[in-house]
Design brief:
It is built from eleven helices and 14 strands. By secondary structure, the protein is an alpha/beta fold. A seven-stranded parallel β-sheet has the order 8-9-7-6-12-13-14, sandwiched between helices. Strands 2-1-3-4-5 form a five-stranded parallel β-sheet, with helices on both faces. Strands 10-11 form a two-stranded antiparallel sheet.
């Protein structure tokens, strides 16, 4: 029998600690080994037993989550998942948390409806499992979960047609767990005249705006959170806003994005499959699809549709992926023309767009 994934919950709210404990202990492969109301108490727990994954709040008394995260990563790296409330201040801090090594940032579940509660519960469990996989040497199998919607929920399937080529290329990128760092590496390597880029990173509402602003400060190209109708231009990357789907559209020679609400697809909103299918339909051979690190399989089928439409496709390799889930599923489908380490993907994109 496989060992359970041991989780330490660090949150100053007794209600949240109880809620997360109930959620995580409901899965047979996860065990909450302890809870802590502040980082000092958590450090004491870790001295007695090292968890496989830590869930960490951002704003806490005595020591904030960001400081504690930096101490963990500098002294004894352990996969950390930030579970935070959605506030502007908390968002900025959470973005820094990703830079300091957090595996994932998610929002605290809300009791808005039974459906949203079940979605939140399932997502938290999946992320804890994915975070445990990010630890080298660990191998935990994902369990199959309830049926989920495909990209059909947002855009109908189609037969690949002979898309007229233009001189302009569009690069569509999808990522999830570990994707924030991977996207930073990819975009920092892009020159000012890089082809237009559209990105779906699984990330909560509000976080995507801070993420885009942060990347805009670091990169030579312009990076912004996408707004409905934004043109896809050379030297600019558009990041799909959290809790919205983003589709690529075309009007004449102009590419633009449509940002719209809709159901969860592959349990995500935005979903990579939605972006990739729309890119296959409206850009076809004029596009390049890139599927980066992430848990699950979102983007795998969409990347295959892009390839079948004449696009060039790339999947990140296992060694450089934080979680080799989405790229692995794409490779299984033979959706990737090339499987490359993260450091080589930017140069390959530029080579394909010459």
């Amino acid at each position: 029998m496989k060992n359970k994934i041991k989780v330490l919950i660090v949150d100053d709210s007794a209600v949240v600690r109880k809620m997360l404990t109930e959620i995580l202990n409901s899965d047979s492969t996860i065990e909450v080994m302890a809870t802590a109301s502040d980082p000092y108490f958590a450090a004491t727990k870790i001295q007695h037993e090292v968890p496989d994954v830590i869930t960490l709040d951002v704003e806490m008394p005595k020591m904030d989550g960001l400081t504690f995260l930096r101490k963990i990563m500098s002294q004894h790296p352990i996969p950390v998942v930030i579970i935070s409330s959605l506030t502007d201040k908390g968002t900025e801090t959470a973005i820094k948390a990703l830079e300091y090594g957090a595996v994932e940032v998610i929002t605290k579940p809300k009791l808005e409806s039974d459906e949203s509660w079940e979605d939140s519960k399932m997502r938290i469990i999946d992320i804890i499992k994915a975070a445990s996989l990010s630890k080298p040497g660990r191998k935990t199998q994902f369990e199959k979960v309830a049926p989920k919607l495909s990209a059909d929920a947002m855009i109908s399937s189609f037969s690949p047609t002979s898309m007229i080529k233009t001189t302009e290329k569009v690069v569509a990128v999808g990522a999830s767990t570990g994707g924030t760092e991977a996207i930073r590496v990819l975009l920092e390597a892009m020159p000012l005249d890089a082809p237009g880029i559209v990105i779906v990173q699984h990330m909560p509402e509000l976080f995507t705006k801070s993420f885009a602003l942060r990347l805009n400060e670091l990169c030579r190209i312009t990076v912004k959170e996408a707004e409905n109708g934004d043109s896809v231009l050379r030297g600019r990357a558009l990041i799909a806003p959290g809790n919205k789907h983003m589709l690529l559209k075309r009007s004449g020679a102009r590419y633009y994005v449509e940002v719209k609400d809709g159901p969860l697809v592959n349990r995500h909103k935005p979903a990579v499959d939605v972006l990739f299918r729309s890119t296959a339909r409206y850009a076809g051979a004029n596009s390049i699809g890139v599927l980066l690190t992430g848990m699950g399989d979102d983007g795998a089928k969409g990347l295959l549709e892009m390839k079948q439409s004449g696009a060039k496709t790339i999947a990140q390799d296992e060694k450089s992926s934080v979680v080799f889930g989405m790229p692995k599923e794409a490779i299984k489908l033979d959706a990737a023309d090339k499987v490359l380490s993260l450091e080589l993907i930017a140069s390959q994109i530029l080579k394909l767009t010459l």
